[in-house]
């Protein structure tokens, strides 16, 4: 089973599990500020679940590529939307500062 490292937490999950679902079930602080209450609930349209990930994930979805292609996100930033990707092996997740995790 893959292991997700987020700060000092280690979370195990099933292979191909949705990253957002796993992080939220583990009470990981995925959302910043007002986004904790107001976000797109995993549709990929708000971009507030953006995280930097080292390790194997599924390919970017069409929605993910679209949302990460305009401000406040920047193309090529190495960010992924937790709601749109699935875990394929051991990964390390970093949440950058700011509402959209772009800081």
Task: Please give the radius of gyration in angstroms.
Answer: 12 Å
**Main pleated-sheet profile:** 5 strands, mixed
Mean pLDDT comes to 94
Side by side, the strands of the main sheet go: 2-1-5-3-4
Provide the succession of SSEs.
Answer: EEHEHEE
Domain count: 1
Q: Percent helix among the residues?
A: 10-25%
- Shape descriptor reads globular
CATH class identity: Alpha Beta
Q: Return the structural class.
A: alpha+beta
Distance between the termini: 31 Å
- Uncertain residue segments: none
Count the strands?
Answer: 5
The fraction of residues in strands falls at 15-25%
What CATH architecture label applies? Roll
> What is CATH's topology name?
Ubiquitin-like (UB roll)
CATH superfamily: Beta-grasp domain
What is the count of helical runs?
2
